[in-house]
Amino acid sequence: MLLILPIRRWICLPRILGCSLPAAAQMSLPAGQRCQPQGAFPAPEQIGPVVQIFSSSLGAMVSLLAKLRSLLVSAEDHLPEPLKSQKDKLEILRQDLEAINTFLVNLSWVEAPNMMVKHWMNEVRDLSYDIEDYIDNCREEPCSDSEVEELSTLVKQAKDAHERHNRYDLGRWASNPRFVVDGGEQGLVPRLNGDATDLVGISDSKAELIKRLNIDAEQRLVLSIQGPPGVGKTTLAKQVYCEIEGRFECGAFVRASKMPDTRRLLSSIISQIQPRDERPPHGLPVQELIDSLRKHLQQKRYLIVIDGLWETTSWDIVSSAFPDDTHCSRILITTDIEEVALECCDYESDAIFKMETLGGNHSTELFFNRVFGFKHECSKQLKECSEEIIRTCGGLPLAIISIASILAIQPDNLELWRHVKEALFSRLRYNLTSEVKLREIVSLSYNSLPCHLKTCLLYLSMYPEGYTFFKADLVKQWSAEGFIIPGEEKNCDEVAECYFDELTCRGLIQPNHTNISDEVTLYTLHSTVFEVIRSMSIEENFSTVIDYSNTISELSVKIRRLSLRFSSAKYATKPETIKLSPVRSLMFYGLVECLPSIMEFEVLRVLILDVWGDHDQELDLSGIGRLFQLRYMRITSNIIVKLPARVIGLQFLQTMEIYAKVTSVPSDIIHLPRLVHLCVRGEINLSKDIGHMGSLRTFQSFDLSSNSEDNIRQLGEMTDLRDLHVISPTEVSDPLKGKLIAFVSSLEKLGNLKSIIFELAPATSCTSIDLDCSWSISSLSVFLQRLELLPPICIFSRLPVWIGQLRKLCILKIVLRELTTGDVDSIAKLQELTILSLYVRQPTAEQIVFHRAAFPVLKFFKFRCSIMCIAFQPEAMPRLRSLNLEFNAHSGEQNGNMLAGIEHLLNLEEINGRIGAALGAEESDRIVVESVFKDAISKHSRLINFNLRIVGLFDEEWHKKSELDEVAAVVEEVSPSAQHQEAPAPPVSRFPQAQPQPLAQQPLVPPPLGLSAGTSHRSGVTGTRFCNICTAEPQAAAETGMLHRRARHRVPPLPRPVRQDQGAP
Question: Cβ neighbours of residue 141 under 8 Å, at least 6 residues apart?
């Protein structure tokens, strides 16, 4: 760890290195010399080369110097013509840049540089970007005479910058460095507050708010939570939403922002409430979105949470979409502003819940829990120091967490505690408001970051306030920008994850949602954190954000990262004064007409587009093949995307994600040497020799019908693959059987796979396929964590023996022709299994018993069989939360032993049932089965949610007309792969989408930038909400082969909480 304190004292403890005036020397320590005994700092002349850590304060210096050194090592081999004759100039340039880099490193640690220092730093940062762009361009294309002359200009600018630093003695400012706390090479293990049991001081507020929501009023009720920033309003609203959401037919949790954007709010709610096939087209006017949402909510009991409302304009518009009927609907608002709270509640003060700051005891508990963990002891000196720190935080949970997270890195370092206390006193000695105080504390936390973490955090300023994101997606963008440099023992991915985890541990990035397996899947930033980094980003010219409301007449600086948001302006255009050629990262959200020409972005590295338009339009990206520096591209669109015929020029491309229909995939994509993640929706018809894609780690969606049998066999040559998503055609053919056999052969060669998803391609019809012989797999990767073999393609006669060898398996979804208790015992040996879905085609002859201590960590279980014949022994599935059952009612059948022992599932929170009717069964048979089912469930003493849907036939032999009515909903409800369509929530608001991970429940097709998508929180799965009850007229039901009947017990009154949870806001 690295601790930089004021010059009056250096400290060097284990994993702590004091850094004072010779900061450049300290940064230049070789890895093996970074932890020295006190006083053992090497002299500056003994220091080796600069440590490879990227920092926004250094511009492109790190990568630029590395490139110059590489070019000059063997000029004859590496320098392009005619730069070989300019070697002397390049050497002079390198020497000046080395010196400038040393000055930059020193000045980057200054606590509060003056304007002269800031101007010089900004100037040389820009110069470093310009020079790197020049070097890159010369390496890719032949240099013209004018470009050779440009080199002379760049050399002169570097020489002038070097001389100005010395002339104005800027180095003297480096004598007052800021303090920095670094998690070190190993990073920190974050303590994620994703569980309600970790919260402190919220249980009483939660109980009171639920009580207010539980009044008997049939009219729609609007309540507001109001309080200062950082007091825990979002945490409280989230806990209440998760507690009661299952009592409503539909619900949504969305985040507002200071910049009004009613389109984003409405689209976020729609994405969580309306089924995918019922949602309005992307890009509709606001009024049409309101009409669509209002129509869907008619006659429904709904729960809506709008978090962080700053003004009433959005509320005046959005609220018109919520029917004011008599179905006991509830709307919950959180806001910092009392006037907003009053107006939303029609000025009824009783409808406003005032959120108070934490008391002394709760503040102390939260502080010490964060620093030391739940079992904490500290010295008398630390306790005395902590009292002043806690008092300064003013009972604001975010402030307490921010400071405690700094101290948690070295919890027993008294000197660090004293310095933090003094820093707080110097910043907060005046009588400040809670909002200003919180901002100062967050700024202190930000300033304590080492430079590389600051850079990674600043990147988030490009996104809209209130968005949520996936970890995997963000770290890939960091890597594409060049922020991540591999260490001696870690690759880029591992280093990036360490950076992310440390920012999370410090409370600057916050967990936003956990899935059924208690994994954090979504993250977000607090609004105050976002304000701080946005301000710093503007100050350092790190990124530029322009939306429809901006009126920028001129920009005097070069833009390196640009975010364009035209969600509410149909014909918005960029300011004409912006020069796009220096932009390295572009994020665009809006209509296709507003998108600038991609070819103007000559040095683009990161491209993220969310574009919509009319269905007869297309997004023309045929020119991207000339963006030689492109490393990351993700396109989301509702219109066709036109790609170039060849992309061989994209030699640095690492990630290609296209969530839209494409005209075709470039034929030479297989020759991109650095391509690691390839995700293209629909039929991917790749050219032959796909085995050349040896660097690929993520591949989706590989379509068996569009690829030759030879290609499928070559899939086995991609030995570095981690995540594979395969779709199968819907028509039976002999070639398909041959392709499946080839696919099985390839799977056995992919020894590094962690995730396999095999499912049916979207279709309107399908016939039964018996391909059990094709699935004679002898073994799969021992690293496999997720295996989804979904119907009707992947069907096994019995449980394969090799399933028991997958000891790391966490998610299993499989279709069996028949199942025995012995098969269940074999699956139970998979000790890490958290999600299990079993589809059984034939009724079992015996009762399936889940034995004592079976499935110790299972959280989600789905069982589909024509006859419900399962039983649970005591202590079976001790952690099960969600039980999902699908079966048929049979004529004259006795159901006395249905769900025997369900009372032994002590942690069960919800049961979701779907009852069909077997051939020959009458309505009376179904009513009897439904009654028996309810009676069995009633034996459970603490069940929270019970949801029932009456559907069509669950046939033993998978009659396809009925199956197709069900398959989409089944996949969406059960499969984490379905979250490739919608992100897990609550709460969700999204700009960039994440690349699917083996275990994280993430979407295959992300929703639009800045939008939210939701799920049933308790089930941890997405798609059709379990709490939704389908209703249909009898005639329509007969036409679709489905019969829907509303379950009258579906919406019970809201109960008061049985237990109260404690934990940290």
Answer: none
Task: Report the pLDDT value the prediction gives residue 894, as an integer from 0 to 100.
Answer: 61
DSSP codes of every residue in 391-407: HHHTT-HHHHHHHHHHH
Q: Kindly report, residue by residue over 721-736, the tens digit of the pLDDT.
A: 999 999 887 666 667 7
DSSP-derived secondary structure for 507-520: TSSEEEEE-TTS-E
Contact 437, 394 (CB under 8 A): yes
Q: What is the pLDDT of residue 26?
A: 35
Secondary structure of residue 726 in the 3-state scheme: strand
pLDDT digits (tens, 9 = 90+) for 871-918: 999 999 999 999 999 998 887 666 667 889 999 999 998 898 998 888
Residues 178, 1018: contact at Cβ < 8 Å?
Answer: no
Q: Write out 811-873 in H/E/C secondary structure.
A: EEEEEECCCCHHHHHHHHCCCCCCEEEEEECCCCCCCEEECCCCCCCCCEEEEECCCCCEEEC
Identify whether the C-beta of residue 484 lies closer than 8 Å to the C-beta of residue 492: yes
- Check whether 946 has a pLDDT greater than 90: no
Distance of CA 123 to the CA centre of its chain: 35
| DSSP H or E stretch at residue 727 | strand 723-728
Joined together, the tokens standing for residue 163 give 């001389």
Average pLDDT, the chain: 78
Higher pLDDT, 35 or 341: 341
DSSP per position, 273-298: HS-GGGSPPTT--HHHHHHHHHHHHT
Mean pLDDT in residue range 17-23: 30
How many CB atoms are located within 10 Å of the residue 229 CB? Answer: 22
Residue 349 to residue 355: CA distance in whole angstroms: 14
CA distance 952 to 962: 7
pLDDT band (50, 70, 90) for residue 266: very high
Q: 3-class SS at 579?
A: coil
**Which pLDDT band, with edges at 50, 70 and 90, does 149 fall under?**
confident
CA-CA distance, 937 to 208, in Å (whole number)?
29
pLDDT, tens digit (0-9, with 9 covering 90-100), for 611-653: 988 888 999 999 999 999 999 999 999 899 999 999 999 999 9
Angle between helices 397-407 and 380-393 (to 10 degrees): 150
Cβ contact 1025:985 at 8 Å: no
Cα–Cα distances in angstroms (integers) from residue 997 to residues 94, 240, 315, 677, 755, in the given order: 41, 29, 36, 11, 8
- 518 pLDDT band, cuts 50/70/90, is confident
Structure tokens at 208: 């009171």
Give the Cα separation of 762 and 727 in Å (integer): 9
- The rounded distance, in Å, linking the Cα atoms of 602 and 132 is 13
Where helices occur in 298-449 by DSSP H, the ranges are 312-318, 338-344, 360-372, 380-393, 397-407, 414-427, 434-447
Question: Which helix (H) or strand (E) is 271 found in, with range?
Answer: helix 262-273
- Cβ–Cβ under 8 Å, residues 465 and 532: no
